[in-house]
Amino acid sequence: MKKALIIVDVQNDFCEGGALAVPEANEVIPYINLLMEENEYDQIVLTQDWHPADHKSFASNNNRKVGESIILNGVPQFMWPDHCVQGTFGAEFHKDLNRDKVTHIIQKGKNTEIDSYSGFQDNNHFMKTGLDDFLKYHEIQLLEVVGLALDYCVKFTCTDAVANGYITCLHFNGTKAVNVKPDNGKDAIYEMLQKGITVLG
């Protein structure tokens, strides 16, 4: 069975000192590097948040405060600080992430009008990113997922992976939650278990 490692959004803005820093985010990087060193993956894919500066998920572009919610093109949208803007340092992958074995990069969140938490598609389920096509082309059946953040982009990438027919495993030690609300990370794990995602300790 061919397997791939999906590394979600290990970018400067989500790491320590970033515009949308996930608590303890930097701690997952050595774990992810070790996975790549100790395991043989047929493909290693990075996802990259890659927003235009005028992206509608940014509070600054809606005259809103960070933490508010609006309805954006028919779906609820949390208002985030500006982050992972195309071409900026914040959008770059963290320097400590070993990319020697990476075979493919998927950029998401490029459409100004709609956010894209999942590595597979936007939040409206309207535009695909090409990740599913890439994995199917390479006959991947098993996905292992790590990265940032557990309660948003990692969760939605995992649930879309299952929906697309992949055996899906989350490495708990390879992810951290934003925890906008204190239980978000715990709730995300519960939701993933309910959908048949294996959580590896």
From TrEMBL:
Recorded GO molecular functions are: metal ion binding; nicotinamidase activity
EC class (word): hydrolase
Which domain of life does the UniProt lineage start with?
A: Bacteria
Domain Isochorismatase-like, residue spans = 4-199
Q: Which UniProt keywords apply?
A: Hydrolase, Metal-binding, Pyridine nucleotide biosynthesis
The UniProt record lists the EC number as 3.5.1.19
Q: Which GO terms describe its biological process?
A: pyridine nucleotide biosynthetic process
Query: Cross-referenced SUPFAM superfamilies, in alphabetical order?
Result: Isochorismatase-like hydrolases
User: In which pathway does this enzyme or protein participate?
Assistant: Cofactor biosynthesis; nicotinate biosynthesis; nicotinate from nicotinamide: step 1/1
Similarity comment: family membership: Belongs to the isochorismatase family.
Q: Which NCBIfam families match?
A: PRK11609.1 (NF008623)
* Name the record gives this protein: Nicotinamidase
Tell me the organism's taxonomic lineage.
Answer: Bacteria, Pseudomonadati, Bacteroidota, Flavobacteriia, Flavobacteriales
